[in-house]
Design brief:
With 76 residues, the chain is α+β, with helices and mostly antiparallel strands. It is built from 2 helices and 4 strands; from the N terminus they run ββαββα. The protein is 34% helix and 18% strand.
């Protein structure tokens, strides 16, 4: 799975933190290849990024970015 510059610009939802219950967002580039993320609100919780549904959604978004990358690279 390639990562384009778009992956470092486009924000993606992070599942709800099991400790504080808040949802966060992060750029896709930081999510690719990770199994977990610290809570975006620094509560000390760890968010699991391994559920199949989440992985499928993230992978489809990365594929979509790969498809639009040629048009993005032509922008001035």
């Amino acid at each position: 799975m390639a990562t384009s510059d778009l992956a470092w610009v486009i924000k993606f939802p992070i599942p709800r933190c099991p400790k504080c219950g808040k949802e966060g967002v992060e750029v896709i580039g930081r999510l690719i290849g990770r199994d977990e993320m610290p809570c975006a609100y620094s509560c000390g919780g760890t968010v699991d990024l391994r559920p199949d549904e989440y992985r499928i959604f993230l992978n489809k978004c990365v594929e979509a970015l790969d498809h639009i990358r040629p048009a993005y690279e032509k922008l001035p």
